[in-house]
Amino acid sequence: MSTTAQHDELGQNGPAPDDGRACEEAGTGAHVAIQALAARGVTARTIVDADESWLIVGHDTATDAHALLHLYRGEEDGTDVNRVPDPDRDNWYVATVGTDGLELVLTMQPAGELEVCVEALAAWADAGRPARNVPAELRDLYGRFADGYTPEDIRAVFDRIHRAGGPYLVCVWEYADAHGFGGNSQFYAENAEGDHFEVEPDVHLWLSGRTELPAPMCGWVCDPVTGPTDYPVSDDFHNYARTCRTAD
């Protein structure tokens, strides 16, 4: 979506009720979203272009980094944040726009989940409006795990991420047996001492093809893992197993 507008309804980072121009009507998507964002300290203004409208959120005038928020139903209906959200038909679309103008989806939620969108936007703004990118040589990993993954896939992908300057990621499987690793699995980061850390969830979403790009790699490693991490099986690369199954 282009952010070059034909008409900026507010012209400021919020409503101006006394300037003689129409403001958002109570109950419309624009009205409820601006109020919810303002409660989190995030500014927003309405943009109208022909028959479409959306919000510019958290605009940084120095860098032009900002986010977009609008309602959509389908291709035939376009986008219109100035309508009253229909809980059965409407969805929220949230994207960030970096200093390079690249628009990337941040989240998409049903009409009743505005708070999820507000939290995502507030977290992005609080973090300084970070560019959501990864090194160019890793862009082709988007959707690599869309159809699942094997221990061999884990080794190949996680090795590339580490060689490109990312954290050393590992996959902890439910079990290992004579046929290899299997069962449910979870991604973690591992440091040189062997300590494990939680990983930003959108790393998995990106590799699974469910979000276009994750947060910058510098923010992938989160809190230390609580509980035992002395797993009984490892391939000495990027795979671990919580239990070892032996043949009867």
Give an overview of the whole structure.
The chain is an alpha+beta fold and 248 residues long. It has helices at residues 29-39, 114-126, 151-163, 202-207; strands at residues 7-8, 44-49, 52-57, 66-72, 91-97, 103-110, 169-177, 180-190, 196-199, 221-224, 233-234, 239-244. Residues 1-23 have low confidence and may be disordered.
**Tally of contiguous helical segments:** 4
Oligomeric state of shown chains: single chain
Tell me the structural class. Answer: alpha+beta
- Which bin fits the share of residues in helices? 10-25%
Rg, rounded, reads 22 Å
Label the overall shape: elongated
How are the strands of the largest sheet arranged? Answer: 1-2-3-4-5-6
How many β-strand stretches?
12
Q: Give the biggest beta sheet.
A: 6 strands, antiparallel
Separation, N- and C-terminal Cα atoms: 60 Å
Instruction: Indicate the low-confidence ranges by residue numbers.
Output: 1-23
- For the residues shown, what is the average pLDDT? 85
Please write the string of helix (H) and strand (E) elements.
EHEEEEEHHEEEHEEE
Q: Beta-strand percentage? A: 25-35%
